[in-house]
Amino acid sequence: MDCLLPHIRDWFLPKKEYFISFSKADSRIEGWFKAELLVLFNKLAKEGRLKYEREANIALPKDGKRKQVDFLFAIEGENHLCELKALCISQAAGTPRNLHFYFRDDHVGLIKDFKKLDELPHKNKWLLAFIYPSPDAIEWNKVVGSLPSTFKHWNAITRPQDFPEFVFISLWKA
User: In this predicted model, what pLDDT tens digit does every residue of 102-138 receive, in sequence order?
Assistant: First the structure.
């Protein structure tokens, strides 16, 4: 999945106007991100770089119940599971959605997706989060460091300082 990051970065970084508009409207628009990724992944699939399935149903080993993940990729003969998050932290409309808001254990935050992916039997598990505007690196490190110990095996592969101020493409691997 990390081999897809340069393609994702190249696809989204020219869309600065979108991120600025989403931030000004203080809007989480996860559907837009998924649609853009579908177009990109279709292009990469045509080039033979990957195979993918969206909204893949994965069986739990303990009881056979299924969990749905945003994307299942086959890259170089290995399967990868990926959850997608859109995190607007602008607070332009006075919402409480700052960076800390998304690191809570509820129906909105990253922890919910970490838990879901941890239940699944695959070895390659990823979380892709679009955070806009980009958080301050010190604040990012503080929030990441505050993750409960049960999620310390999740590692942030990317850093805010490597992205422009209008968006941080955060890639996590378990």
Answer: 988 877 789 999 999 999 988 899 999 999 999 999 9
Parent domain of 156: 2-173
SS3 95: coil
Residue for token digits 């990469």?
44
Q: What's the total number of domains in the chain?
A: 1
Q: Are 109 and 103 in contact (CB under 8 A)?
A: yes
User: Which residues have a Cβ under 8 Å from the Cβ of 59 and sit 6 or more positions away?
Assistant: 65, 66
Write out the E strands in 45-139: 51-59, 66-75, 78-88, 125-132
Strands 66-75, 51-59: pairing kind: antiparallel
Instruction: Read off the tokens for 60.
Output: 């739990």
Predicted TM-score (pTM) of the model is: 0.93
At residue 55, the 3 state secondary structure works out as: strand
Name the token pair of 16.
């600065």
